[in-house]
Amino acid sequence: MSEASGTPDPTQPSAPPVAGASGPASPVAPTYGPAAAVPAPSGAGGTYGPYDAYGPVEPAYASAGAAQTKRPIIMWDLILTIVLLVVMIGVTLLASFLSFFLAFAGDSCGSGITCDYDRISTGMLIAMIGPLAVGVLALIAAVIVLVLKRIAFWIPIVGIVLVIGVFVGGAALTASGVPGSSG
Fold first, then answer.
1. For residue 102, which of 11, 71, 137, 182 sits 20 to 30 Å off, Cα-Cα?
2. Any domain includes 33
3. For residue 63, is it within any domain?
4. Residue 106 included in any domain
5. Contact (Cβ atoms closer than 8 angstroms) between residue 135 and residue 64
6. On the CB side of 19, how many CA atoms lie within 13 Å of its CA?
């Protein structure tokens, strides 16, 4: 085909028809996508790097940060984290329930024994509210880390340890308000 007029060139053989084209057969199928690499221009500057039909190709290191790759879901971590979160919620609720029994620590007070009721009530509140606060924070942290598709099974384990630690600390504070109870 002549470039200027658009009419077929009689000296060139005709191209085979393109499959799937409607109407008369198209002599050349259009190409889409990246063009073949063109050699770098030669001159006083030496070699310049890879070029395509549109100019210099961007180096690989320049586009590495632009395209964010998605992390795959780690199935074993997801299942283990959910199981451990259920266990952590159970431990948290059990610790909060057991904190109500710390009110009985003051039963021996009154008959010649002076107790520190403020310390007893503060320890009981720490043992009641502390595990709930730690459990909620660990649950939120685990969900955030799971959404980011990172390893998260360790968060409920740390949460369980902290829930037990806060409960034991509150119980110890409650027991310290009763003289003679810490042996």
1. 137
2. no
3. no
4. no
5. no
6. 0
